[in-house]
Amino acid sequence: MRKIVIAGNWKMYKTQAETTEFLQGFMPELEKTPEDREVVICPPFTALDAISRSLHGSLVQLGAQNIHWEDNGAFTGEVAGSMLSEIGVRYVIVGHSERRQYFGETDESVNKRLLSAQRHGLIPILCVGETKQQRDAGETESIITNQLEKDLVNVDQQRLVIAYEPIWAIGTGDTCESSEANRVIGLIRSQLSNADVTIQYGGSVKPDNIDEIMAQPEIDGVLVGGASLQPASFARIVNYQ
Ligand SMILES: O=C(CO)COP(=O)(O)O
User: Fold this and answer.
1) Is residue 57 scored above 80 in pLDDT?
2) Does ipTM come in above 0.95?
3) Which residues make up each annotated binding site?
4) Please, which domain of life does this record's source organism belong to (predicted)?
5) Residue-number span of the structural domain to which 212 is assigned
6) 59 or 200: whose pLDDT is higher?
7) pLDDT in tens, 124-172
8) By 3-state DSSP, what share of the chain in percent is helix, strand and coil, each rounded to 5?
9) Domain CATH number, residue 113
10) Ligand 1 center from residue 73 Cα (angstroms)
11) Residues facing residue 6 across a β-bridge
């Protein structure tokens, strides 16, 4: 059975105080959330500990936005897997397009981060997706196939989530048609050795398109940016019909 995972990627938003305020509004909304789905919040590193204490005992899981591939060492500015697992982190986003675009992440470093996450008992959420230019050139399939091939070397597909995030749909309000997201996610699934991997869609997911997205047969969840920052909108997404 494929697991449904609804995750909020807060990117570089929210201080600890803002996180606490968010949780006050958000947690009561979970009382009516069906148990068929896992809810994950991925705040900035600085809010992980605060949120970990508040989430303890709740249905919500904690996620980080990055992880280094070494277990420790002289890597200024990086965070290791043991530091995340110690404070209750369960998921970690790896290879987000913003990391690939602004911070020089390559498929090779993404692969090493995936392996590190699994070594520390964390479930990586691997992000893949094409740019607008690549889509227009008809390269969507080849780009994604290439990312999967390189990123997943030696990765255990029993402990993995994949997010299909077309880069042109991120933060633009320009959602990928749900049927098209379903098609690409089906293509991703066909290339995996484990057909039960949870595969999410990400890119301008909002309260008004979540029901349609989640009605697609191949889509097992969403990775939400902007709309996960407000308690009411993220609650509506989590409580999709
Ligand atoms: O990048 C995303 C999630 O990782 C998507 O961001 P938006 O939902 O703001 O488009």
Assistant:
1) no
2) yes
3) 9-11, 171, 204, 225-226
4) Bacteria
5) 4-238
6) 200
7) 999 999 999 999 999 999 999 999 999 999 999 999 999 999 999 999 8
8) 40, 15, 40
9) 3.20.20.70
10) 31
11) 39, 222
